[in-house]
From TrEMBL:
PANTHER family: L-THREONINE DEHYDRATASE CATABOLIC TDCB, THREONINE DEHYDRATASE, MITOCHONDRIAL-RELATED. One of its GO terms (molecular function) is threonine synthase activity. Catalyzes the gamma-elimination of phosphate from L-phosphohomoserine and the beta-addition of water to produce L-threonine. Keywords: Amino-acid biosynthesis, Lyase, Pyridoxal phosphate, Threonine biosynthesis. It comes from Leptolyngbya subtilissima DQ-A4. Pathway: Amino-acid biosynthesis; L-threonine biosynthesis; L-threonine from L-aspartate: step 5/5. It is an enzyme of class 4 (lyase). Its cofactor is pyridoxal 5'-phosphate. Belongs to the threonine synthase family. Its EC number is 4.2.3.1. This is Threonine synthase. Residues 86-388 form the Tryptophan synthase beta chain-like PALP domain.
Length: 434
């Protein structure tokens, strides 16, 4: 008897309403994302932090599963059986060789290029969104995707036995398309850019009654990104870093890392301290970086044109909130050219053995640019978020990396090739010295 009462208390949700970020109006916990009664601002999940503080300790988290669900009390799902496909708890790698190259003392890579199951941070947001979708009774799930979200939604829907229809721009990388089709969802390749895909999906959400992870389920979905804040704090030994650098598409991830850190402070899991937030965009789609540089508090939409397709959102929903966080934390938002994106991918691969996609190349290139501009102090502990895997965007580096030596299966053929490779190395060095 007593036990079942305790269980009932333990499983009581820690979240109670949706709340408008702009005007504070509250809504019930359905599939809604805008403040339709008052101001059309975005809705966010509201929690009972006193309850979370009573319930959660460092050791209760450490005793939890090796996935994002160790932070379940901070996530908007009520079930005790969330969809757990091993998402989260990706490595936080001390990046000493990259740090030395850049002149930094304490640099870490949060490596979501190896997140499960589809090798990008999107598995976090989708695990949460589909768990909530199931609770709300949806049988078909969907998304408007720049690539990685379609991979995640299709894979995790397959695991959960949900029907799935995803929408992507028609010009995505082959790896992103194949990496969706293999799970056999319905795939709509829309002849248009992401912002057009997104507009279409808003209409479909109203007509089909599907759960769109990043539209009508967006308040739940976006909370999944907070786990990138929690994990870094836990992996650093329950402390916050001095500076983080993360990529910006809609700006959601960036704002939720911030929220994650703040929540850990609020419930007493880490000490409060200032953390600087810097954001990365590709020049060919940099509406938030442009607003930052021009001192604007509004974002002017742009038409994307960059190889960094996974972060090519021309009209970013959370752009103004990302701007606000970068400014109030004394961070920066910077952009880099596509050539720098490729150099960033190669730099991370050659120094740390991590093959990231174009979004990660963007983030590394921005890290380098900020260090060179004196905007990251060499003494700051800095965490760089690598959000996707390079095998999915192979087109980007084709022609910019070496080629194998094709040899006969004979020792002398190998030795001649080895000599040639050494000559090439020497030539490269001479070019560097000239
Ligand atoms: C979606 C995505 C992001 C950024 O997403 P937000 O919309 O800003 O939350 C960053 N990196 C990769 C690889 C992505 O797929
Ligand atoms: Zn409102």
């Amino acid at each position: 008897m007593t036990q079942s009462i305790e269980q009932a208390i333990a499983t009581k949700p820690t979240f109670s309403a949706l709340k408008c970020r702009e005007c504070g109006e509250t809504y019930d916990l359905g599939a809604k994302h805008v403040c339709e009664d008052v101001c059309f601002g975005p809705l966010e999940v509201a929690y009972d932090y006193d309850e979370i503080r009573r319930r959660v300790t460092r050791s209760s988290i450490q005793a939890g599963p090796l996935s994002i669900w160790r932070y379940k009390d901070f996530l908007p799902v009520s079930t005790d059986n969330p969809i757990d496909v091993g998402t989260g708890m990706t490595p936080l790698v001390r990046a000493n060789r990259l740090a030395r190259q850049l002149g930094l003392k304490e640099l870490y890579i949060k490596n979501d290029a190896v997140n499960m199951p589809t090798l990008s941070f999107k598995d976090r947001v989708v695990s949460v969104a589909l768990t909530r979708a199931r609770e709300l009774g949806f049988t078909t799930v969907s998304c408007a995707s720049t690539g990685n979200l379609a991979n995640s939604t299709a894979a995790i829907a397959a695991h959960a036995g949900l029907d799935c229809c995803v929408f992507i721009p028609a010009d995505l990388e082959a790896g992103k398309v194949l990496g969706t089709l293999i799970y056999n969802p319905t795939v709509m390749a829309v002849q248009g850019n992401y912002d057009q895909v997104n507009r279409l999906c808003s209409e479909v959400a109203n007509t089909q009654g599907w759960g769109f992870v990043n539209i009508n389920l967006r308040p739940y979905y976006s909370e999944g990104s907070k786990t990138l804040g929690y994990e870094v704090a836990e992996q650093l030994g329950w402390r916050l870093p001095d500076h983080i650098v993360a990529p910006l598409a809609s700006g959601s991830l960036f704002t939720k890392i911030y929220k994650g850190f703040q929540e850990f402070v609020k419930v007493g899991l880490v000490d409060d301290k200032p953390v600087r937030f810097s954001g990365a965009q590709a020049e060919g789609c940099s509406p938030i970086a442009q607003a930052f540089k021009e001192g604007r508090d509004f974002v002017t939409p742009v038409k994307p044109n960059t190889i960094a397709k996974s972060i090519a959102i021309g009209n970013p929903a959370d752009g103004i909130y990302a701007l606000d966080i970068a400014r109030k934390t004394n961070g920066n938002i910077e952009s880099v050219t596509d050539a720098e994106v490729i150099e960033g991918m190669k730099l991370l691969a050659e120094t740390e053995g991590i093959f990231t996609e174009t979004a990660g190349g963007t983030t590394i290139a921005v890290l380098k640019k900020l260090v060179e501009a004196g905007k990251i102090d060499p003494d700051e502990s800095t965490v760089v978020y690598i959000t996707g895997n390079g095998l999915k965007t192979q087109e980007a580096v084709q022609g910019y990396i070496g080629e194998p030596f094709t040899i006969e299966p004979k020792l002398d053929s190998f030795e001649r090739a080895l000599e040639r490779s050494r000559t090439l190395d020497r030539l490269e060095w001479q070019q560097v010295l000239v």
